[in-house]
Design brief:
CATH topology: Nuclear Transport Factor 2, Chain: A
Order of helices and strands: HHHHEEEEE
Structural class: alpha+beta
Number of helices: 4
Distance between the termini: 57 Å
Radius of gyration: 19 Å
């Protein structure tokens, strides 16, 4: 029995190592979370750096539309799935709360599916549907 303990520990360590090195969907989901945080904190430079070139003008327009209100995220959680074409679809739960004159308006994040692409080792938001 004692002979199998080192072997079992070695196999378990190898399995954990390989699981950690495997493809992860955390990065595309985190990219959308970072994008939404940049949006509500009104950080145009960060928002631009998290957007693909085609989407950047639209991202800045979205940011401009929120300039007159206070914004915050509530209950944000995102999950990603890989698509066959190499892009990722990211769905989020939670909301952006926009406050104007003491009144909150809730923008439900679950109604959008974000498109994320990998370019140069970075995951970038490239629109939503």
């Amino acid at each position: 029995m004692r002979k199998f303990l080192p072997f079992t520990l070695s196999v378990l360590t190898l399995v954990l190592f390989l699981a950690a090195c495997g493809p992860s969907l955390d990065a595309p989901a985190r990219a959308v979370e970072d994008y939404l945080n940049a949006l509500v904190s009104k950080d145009s430079d960060r928002l631009s750096s998290l957007s693909c070139a085609d989407w950047e003008p639209t991202a800045i327009l979205e940011l401009d539309s929120l300039q007159a209100v206070e914004t915050r995220l509530e209950g944000l959680a995102c999950t990603a799935t890989a698509n066959e074409d190499g892009t990722y679809s990211v769905n989020c739960t939670g909301a952006i709360l926009a406050t104007y004159n003491g009144e909150d308006q809730e923008l439900d994040l679950s109604v959008r599916t974000y498109n994320v692409v990998e370019q140069g080792g970075e995951f970038l938001v490239c629109g939503y549907k």
